[in-house]
Amino acid sequence: MLLLSGLLVLAATAQASVLTLHTPRVTTYNSAGEGIRTENLKLTEKPLHPMIEEGSTKGVQPLQTFLRFYDPETNEEGIQPLRVTPAGKSKFELNMAKPPLSIPPTTTSPLQVTLIIGSESHSPLKIELFDMTLPESQPAPQHPDEASFHLLPEIVHTFRSPQKVPPRPVSALFAGVALAPWAVLIALASLWSQVFPGVPHLFSLSILPFIASLGAFEVLLVWYWVELKLGDVLLYGGILGVATLFTGNTALASIGARRVGKTK
């Protein structure tokens, strides 16, 4: 087990109000807790103005202090807040037995460790401390249901091709065939009126309800083709069938009565 600690002392110049670090160092410990190496850090970013002379250094407690761990290979980063005492001292311990959540997933490339300090009365400070090499992260264990949450292939729906419409002359021809029985009925009714003048004509009050019921059947078939379902057609057809039976019986009775009166 490795234990990495750092002692950071913050100082400020009285004239320029620029934050800087005073004697930062890193100590590496072994699994027994014994320090095996201590190294003083050399700052890569120098303050804008000279530091305070030794003996007049006064610690400053900044408003915010963070350590940034950045992996340039994967662009992963982690931010670790640091606690700074009123005297300006801060200490961070890294125990690889229980690494903090701020450490990003590691690879074979080292992490760049940067110190970020912010204060209300001083200019902010960002200093690259060192590069740190950690053991490579192990892949996360696979959950038994992980395969169920993977991205599935996109569902591509092929819509049915548009319905083919026959040419207008063909449609007009079959429409004429469908209406031909009505033309035959009207022609026969006119001929019947001429042959038997006393027989009620097609549009008389006793015949017209029967003709209307036949026309209602034609409308029902068109309605079924456009919108209705088979059950609706059977229901409405049954009602129209009773009405057609009644009106047809009335029409035949009227014609029979006129025939009998004509014979007498």
UniProtKB/TrEMBL annotation:
Keywords: Endoplasmic reticulum, Membrane, Signal, Transferase, Transmembrane, Transmembrane helix. It comes from Mycena sanguinolenta. GO terms for biological process: protein N-linked glycosylation. Residues 159-259 form the Ribophorin II C-terminal domain. Residues 1-16 form the signal peptide. GO terms for cellular component: oligosaccharyltransferase complex. This is Dolichyl-diphosphooligosaccharide--protein glycosyltransferase subunit 2. It is a multi-pass membrane protein. One of its GO terms (molecular function) is transferase activity.
